[in-house]
Amino acid sequence: MRIALVSTYGVKCGIATYTEHLAREITGDNDVVIFAEDCINNGQQNFNTDLKFVRCFNRNSKDTRLIEALRNFKPDVVHIQHEYGIFKDLTDLLEKVRHNFRGRTVMTLHTVNVANGFDLHNCSDYFIVHKELAKTHLEMTEKVKPEFLRMIPHGTLIVPHKPAEFARKKLGLPVDSKIVLSHAFFERRKNIDKIIKAVSDLKSETPIYYIHIGDIHPHISEKNGEIYYRECLRLIKELDIERHVRFLRSFVPDEELFYYLNACDVIVTLENENYPKISASGIMHTVAGKPVIASNVTNFTEFPDNSFYKIDINVESLKDAIREILSNPELSEELVRNLLQYARETSWDKVAKEHLKLYTKCIEKATLRYIYT
Fold it and tell me: What is the third-level CATH fold of 157-345?
């Protein structure tokens, strides 16, 4: 099967990471090529890959390079990784892609905005969403026919295990402290300042250390990115906790990230509510056998009860959660066990098989339509 994935790739972007994992799992006996966007001030440092890709479109340009590149490849199926931040102004281009490969186009909707009308009916033959909530909205409100809509969960990466002490020594981290870790783009809606304040308050109770891994999002306002980052640096200095915090803004390859995830005691994901936008979190779908504290928001609803510690987005709730997890090993083990079970059920290899089933159905129906015509 010749599969074309249309996406960002080799850049600082969750969609690019998603595409990387999916492409690796579906390659096997298939010929997979990523038709990638140009780098737009977001190139991934020292990027290299053994996957096939070609840069052939740009969110700021309505040129025809993508159509030409796809025609040259002659794919059996075209799978578009849609995010409005990337394709907002390219609806006409996506309609042309479908026109050229009618019956053989698939689109993953990484965000469904229930407050806006759905404007992508003519851009794909089949749609994939990651949540039942999004599927229900598209069926009931936007009248997308169920036979053209699939709910396939976001794939989950299970991090290879390394002993915590070994990982800490390799990274030069304190062996005797409790380590709190967050990893995501550095932006205001991630509430990193609240994690800093919680760590500052808890340091008098237990030796504690906070690590955040992630650079500033390349496509957000200065207020929510660079200015917020400087605010957090000032806060750390004001609270006199420079020795208790480490920020890693440079790109961290997966192998190094896995060491950090193994080194920590608890992972915190404190995102703001994003509804009416419905999407899945790539950060939450990286599971490391560590207890997770996360905000009680719509974007995490696919995770089963008791698979992570749900909290309100404030410092006191976060402190209480960290205290309870660090002092209650039974609770910690239950959260880890339940989250790992979900991770196994939604592992990338299983998710890839669901994609391949849809591709096959798409091709078979397109072939029958062609024969009948």
Answer: Rossmann fold (3.40.50)
The CB density around residue 314, as the number of other CB atoms within 10 Å, is 15
Phi and psi for 127 in degrees, rounded to 5? -125, 140
With tokens 């891994």, the residue in question is 213
Could you tell me which of 4, 107, 97, 87 has the C-alpha nearest to residue 51?
4
pTM of the model as a whole: 0.93
Q: Give me the amino acid identity at 269.
A: T
Identify the DSSP state of 153: P
2-155+347-372: CATH class: alpha beta
Token pair listed for 191 = 């509430």
What are 172-193's pLDDT values in tens digits?
999 999 999 999 999 999 999 9
160 has pLDDT over 70: yes
Give CA–CA dist 185/12, Å, rounded: 9
Same topology, domains 2-155+347-372 and 157-345? Answer is yes
d(C-alpha 249, C-alpha 215), whole Å: 4
CA distance 328 to 333: 9
Torsion of CA 234, 259, 219, 14, to 10 degrees: -150
What is the rounded CA–CA span in Å between residue 204 and residue 186?
A: 27
Query: Could you give the CA distance from residue 338 to residue 333 in angstroms, rounded to a whole number?
Result: 9
**Per-residue pLDDT tens digits for 186-213:** 999 999 999 999 999 999 999 999 999 9
CA distance 238 to 304: 39
> In angstroms, rounded to a whole number, what is the distance separating the alpha carbons of residues 340 and 347?
10
* Residue 22 vs residues 62, 106, 122, 311, 338: alpha-carbon distances, Å: 27, 14, 24, 31, 24
Q: Look at strands 157-158 and 208-213 and give their pairing.
A: unpaired
Are the C-beta atoms of 241 and 200 separated by less than 8 Å? yes
* Residue 44 DSSP label: P
At 363 the pLDDT is 95
Q: Residue ranges per domain, the chain? A: 2-155+347-372, 157-345
11: which strand partners? 43
- Asked if 362 and 104 touch (Cβ cutoff 8 Å), the reply is yes
CA angle, residues 270, 272, 274, in degrees to nearest 5: 135
Q: What pLDDT shows up at residue 345?
A: 98
d(CA 73, CA 70): 5
